[in-house]
UniProtKB/TrEMBL annotation:
Pfam families: HTH_IclR, IclR_C. It comes from the Bacteria. PROSITE patterns: HTH_ICLR, ICLR_ED. Residues 89-272 form the IclR-ED domain. This is IclR family transcriptional regulator.
Length: 272
């Protein structure tokens, strides 16, 4: 008769871990997280039927969870009501979390290198509660220049940063951002047709270069920093000021190319 095999502690470990995981299951939370993770990979959102099929869930499970995510503003419905996509709420929450600090830490050396080479100031903005928030700023190396104060809230509608941020969003997300928008001091109002035309032109060029709507003699150049879905998670902008003395500084075209290179280093879209 063979002696009984002694139990191997390593064999029991996976079972114990599985039991522990099962003990603390939260099916509703799992369903919500499954939906968020699925939508994070979709550029144009999904219908309810597509979500059901992808997750292998029934209609009642998906419907109730989607409605709660919409109410809590983690997910937005398209204007037609048939497609769902992620809002920027998770990104907004990250403003108060270390990942935002890591993003700023990664951006600052790139911004400093740009400022030194272009001899212009540069600032980084993200969407925040209806307008834009300046989360990083670097001055140019010269004795004078124009800079935007760190922590400032700037307009979503009439600034280069805001228009670039809006141009590189899904229609549903852009509509939500515009609905949340509150007018800032001095903001120039633009009608929907003018905005739509501007957004189309920005997407075609990949950036915006225009005379500042706030200051004479300044040309704003702004590029989007793209996330994995191809939508803008931030905008990198330089308020270009042209030298008129004998000093030969980088031209507007040169500075535009330098800013594009900087944003490509920070973007997270495929192919980067």
């Amino acid at each position: 008769m063979k002696p009984a095999k002694s139990p191997n502690p390593s064999d029991a470990a996976p079972e114990a871990a599985l039991d522990e995981a099962e003990r603390y299951r939260a099916p509703a939370l799992d369903k919500g997280l499954d939906i968020l993770e699925l939508l994070s990979e979709q550029k144009d959102g999904l219908t309810r039927a597509e979500i059901m099929k992808a997750l292998g869930r029934n209609a009642s499970e998906i419907y109730r969870m989607l409605e709660r995510l919409v109410v809590r503003q983690y997910v937005v419905r398209s204007s037609g009501g048939d497609r769902y996509s992620l809002s920027l709420k998770l990104f907004a929450l990250a403003h108060r979390h270390p990942p935002m600090n890591r993003f700023i830490a990664a951006a600052l050396p790139v911004m400093q290198s740009f400022a030194d080479e272009a001899e212009q100031s540069v600032h980084l903005t993200v969407y925040d509660r209806g307008n834009l928030l300046v989360i990083a700023q670097v001055d140019g190396p010269g004795t004078w220049g124009l800079s935007i104060r760190l922590g400032s809230r700037v307009g979503l509608i009439d600034t280069a940063s805001g228009q670039v941020m809006l141009a590189f969003q899904s229609e549903a997300e852009r509509s939500r951002m515009l609905d949340e928008h509150t007018k800032v001091k001095g903001e120039i109002a633009l009608d929907e047709a003018a905005l739509a035309s501007t957004f189309a032109a920005i997407r075609a060029r990949g950036h915006l270069r225009k005379d500042s709507a706030q200051t004479f003699g300044v040309t704003d150049v702004s590029f989007p920093i793209l996330g994995p879905s191809g939508h803008a998670i931030a905008a990198l902008t330089t308020p270009y000021m042209r030298r008129i003395d004998e000093y030969v500084a980088p031209s507007l075209d040169d500075v535009t190319a330098m800013l594009e290179a900087a944003t490509l280093k920070l973007s997270m879209h495929e192919g980067n």
